[in-house]
Design a protein that fits this description.
By secondary structure, the protein is α+β, with helices and mostly antiparallel strands. Helix content is about 35%, strand content about 20%. It has three domains: about 90 residues, SH3 type barrels (Roll); about 150 residues, Glutaredoxin; about 140 residues, no CATH class. The strands form five sheets. It has a six-stranded mixed beta sheet with strand order 6-7-8-9-11-10.
Length: about 400
């Protein structure tokens, strides 16, 4: 059924489209003349496509709905061509290596959360923000829902603003999926690793997290935000979700994929803002000790002994997971080194390495790009020197 607002626009000789958040916009919102099947015309910009309707923005800024099947034949052809272009663009990696490293990333907008489903009988509660759909088996307080949504959207923005080509991820019906569980037992039943705080399921592109590992606490029959707890699990897993598949190749899986996830998760976060400038101190506290205020942390100390760097890079992910505290923490420090210490401190080499991964190179071939003419021993010495100046002592031995 048409809304009264849309009916008024049709009577006025116009057709229109309603706003659709979280759907890919068109190129620069090009304004063109649209014609419906009754030859009525209007100048507007195509904003998005929502199922069997289009989303246009009129000159006065209004955005309303109109069925695609009532467009003129020429406009249907234009729309089909546009959708093909969008599909092709979405399949290509977003390589932003030339952009500057962000100092602060803020998501200050209203997350505009929608309660899509509330089924108490099947214990299924579905909430949606601009880019995320999170499904929980227990009802969440509105403060938790909004807090999670703001965290999801801020982390999404942060990952995309890092000049590292973080353009991965798989959406379902236009949203990234996150499953939240009241009990760890249900989390494990659905495939979550026992004892883990959360997991990104690479085959399905879905994040799963038990609520007890997040910064929430139960009050009565619902969960509310616990201001005394930090939440690093979700940013860590969201980073995995947005990491391109090529980055999970031999030679980068492990030290880099976990290193970048730790880097994002440890970045100081407050109410939608990531303070990237404060990352170094926070990372050292988290990796070497128990984190700021003694809450969490890898606690591997400031004297870190690793195998030869070549062997460390090329180890299997299973080997990497054999000592998770040490390897996650070391991966984070190595990632930081390549982001901010290596060469001129501009991340040039790590970006070239990631570009090589996007091209399908991996293992030793890609690592030669990262070395950039250095030997592995020279790289080890540079890592030792740079981190020693910050009070962290690396050593590499067989």
């Amino acid at each position: 059924m048409l809304s009264k607002g849309i009916v008024r626009w049709i009577y006025a000789g116009f057709f229109s489209v309603a706003i659709l958040a979280a759907v890919s916009p068109t190129r620069a919102e090009e304004v063109r003349t649209w014609v419906d099947d009754q030859n009525r015309k209007v100048d507007a910009a195509l904003v998005a496509v929502k199922g069997d309707e289009v989303v246009l923005r009129l000159k006065n800024g209004k955005e309303l709905d109109f069925p695609i099947n009532k467009l003129s034949a020429a406009d249907k052809e234009y729309l089909n061509k546009h959708l093909e272009e969008m599909k092709e663009a979405a399949s290509k990696p977003r390589l932003n290596f030339e952009e500057r490293w962000p100092e602060q990333v803020s998501f200050k907008d209203d997350p505009e959360v929608e309660d899509k489903t509330e089924d108490k009988e099947s214990n299924r509660f579905v909430y949606e923000s601009a880019n995320y759909r999170f499904i929980c088996d227990v009802k969440l307080a509105s403060s938790v829902v909004r807090g999670f949504a703001r965290l999801f959207e801020a982390t999404h923005k942060y990952c995309l603003e890092l000049p590292l080509g973080m353009s991965g991820g798989r959406q379902i019906d236009g949203k990234y999926q996150i499953l939240l569980f009241e009990q760890e037992a249900n989390y494990i039943k659905e495939g979550g690793p026992p004892g883990s705080a959360g997991v990104f399921m690479g085959k399905t592109g879905v994040i799963m997290v038990p609520l007890e590992s997040l910064g929430v606490r139960k009050v009565g029959k619902t969960f509310v935000l616990d201001r005394d707890r930090t939440n690093k699990t979700l940013p860590h897993e969201i980073t995995h979700q947005l990491t391109p598949n090529n980055y999970y190749a031999p030679g980068s899986v492990g030290w880099f994929t976990e290193g970048i996830a730790e880097y994002v998760a440890v970045t100081p976060y407050t109410m939608g803002t990531y303070n990237v400038r404060m990352n170094q101190k926070a990372l050292i506290e988290y990796v070497t000790g128990f984190g700021k205020g003694g809450k969490g942390g890898r606690a591997i100390g400031k004297n870190i002994s690793l195998p030869p760097i070549q062997k460390y890079f090329l180890q299997t992910y299973q080997s990497f997971l054999a000592d998770p505290q040490k390897n996650y923490g070391s991966g984070a420090l190595l990632a930081y080194y390549f982001f901010h210490f290596d060469g001129d401190g501009d991340g040039k080499r790590i970006k070239a390495y990631l570009a090589a991964l996007h091209e399908g190179k991996h293992s030793e071939e890609a690592l030669q790009v990262l070395l950039d003419g250095r030997t592995y021993e020279q790289l080890q010495n540079e890592i030792i020197e740079k981190w020693k100046a910050k009070g962290v002592n690396f050593s590499f031995s067989s």
